[in-house]
Specification:
Alpha-Beta Plaits, five-stranded mixed sheet, 11 helices, six-stranded antiparallel sheet, 2 domains, 356 residues, Beta-Lactamase, elongated
Length: 356
């Protein structure tokens, strides 16, 4: 039988669902499960893909009343869980369903996968507790996850473009602002480290990059073949983008034929390689009725800028250069600046303008 009142349940649900940021939402749910249901340990494994192979990494855990959040680098270095847990994590990826295993006579682990709007497993919660705790709170545990899934469905509908299923423009504003805030906090932490890279003077080896992608002559496609085929081009291009970038990179549709990609934790060479690979995939793909199309891409490192509108403007300047010089290409703003092909424009002092 549950050990807390209906009022306490409602209060905890209200606390969880006040968040629209996914990381904060997951952390709030993990804390609530740990505190309210007396779970010994709550952990969240995020699913990342390397060479199209899924890999689950421990990104968050609550144990002993303390919340621990790990970045990608820390998660990669952590020791793997026990073989039975690994086996069940793999099963969750395949079956997309919850499960319970007994690690010992006295300890159970409950597994709950989280699915995205494409019905893909993106994370797996694991809850470790003794047999009595699990039996006493199983109903409430499953109830919390049902509320969580319903709330995620609402978030997915508000965050994604209805045609392509990619993240939308509004979500971009929030995610870019969050990313730049995290970067500035990292710079402050590293300010006393004499060996850290000067982000203002050069590109970092593990930076974040913003790329603007534009379909060349898209209006001509709509005019010649009709909007139905134009929409099909957008859908197929969105699929190529999903296949070309890592699942922890972010892909957005801005509307029309313009898209934005945020590449995480890579250097200039890695960003350029990924964008050129995507560029080639698009050029090699045969679109039904339309045939082959091309895209123009401009990109720049997010860390070098101080305000969101500035990094977007620089990537857009690089895109404009590509479109003014024959289209069908990929260029980095920093490289164009070094070559003297673009000029520095003074950024506004305050970020008090609307991006769009």
């Amino acid at each position: 039988m549950d050990k807390f009142s209906a009022g306490e349940i409602i209060e905890s649900i209200a606390e969880i669902t006040k968040h629209v940021d996914r990381d904060k939402l997951e952390a709030s749910l993990a804390n609530t499960l740990h505190e309210r249901l007396e779970i010994d340990r709550v952990a969240i494994y995020k699913v990342h893909y390397q060479y199209n192979q899924p890999k689950h990494l421990l990104m968050l855990e609550v144990v002993g009343g303390k919340l621990h959040i790990y970045n990608l680098e820390q998660a990669t270095r952590k020791a793997p869980p026990s073989p039975p847990v690994i086996e069940q994590l793999d099963n969750c990826l395949k079956n997309k369903s919850a499960a319970v295993i007994a690690l010992s006579k006295y300890k159970n682990v409950f597994f709950q996968p989280t699915l995205n709007h494409l019905n893909e497993v993106v994370s797996i919660f694991t809850l470790s507790c003794n047999e009595n705790s699990y039996q006493g709170t199983e109903k409430s545990m499953k109830g919390y996850f049902q509320v969580y899934r319903n709330y995620l469905k609402l978030l997915n509908e508000s965050e994604h473009d209805t045609l392509t299923g990619l993240l939308n423009r509004r979500t971009f504003d929030r995610d870019l602002d969050k990313l730049m805030t995290e970067w500035q906090e990292k710079i402050v932490l590293e300010s006393d480290d004499s060996n850290h890279v000067n982000r203002r003077s050069g590109h970092s080896e593990n930076g974040n990059w913003l790329a603007v992608v534009d379909i060349d002559f898209f209006k001509r496609i709509n005019d010649e073949y009709g909007h139905l085929y134009g929409d099909e081009v957008l859908l197929l291009l969105a699929n190529i983008m999903r296949e070309s970038f890592r699942n922890y990179d972010k892909i957005f549709r801005f509307g029309g034929e313009e898209f934005v990609v945020i590449l995480r934790d890579t250097g200039q060479e890695g960003a350029g390689t990924a964008l050129n690979r995507f560029h080639k995939k698009v050029g090699d793909f045969h679109f039904p009725q339309v045939g082959n199309i091309t895209v123009s891409i401009g990109y720049e490192e997010i860390a070098n800028q101080t305000i969101p509108s500035e990094v977007l403007r620089l990537a857009d300047d690089a895109l404009y250069y590509v479109k003014e010089h024959g289209r069908n290409g990929v260029r980095c703003y920093g490289e164009l600046l070094a070559e003297g092909k673009v000029k520095v424009v003074q950024a506004p002092v305050h970020d008090d303008i609307e991006l769009f």
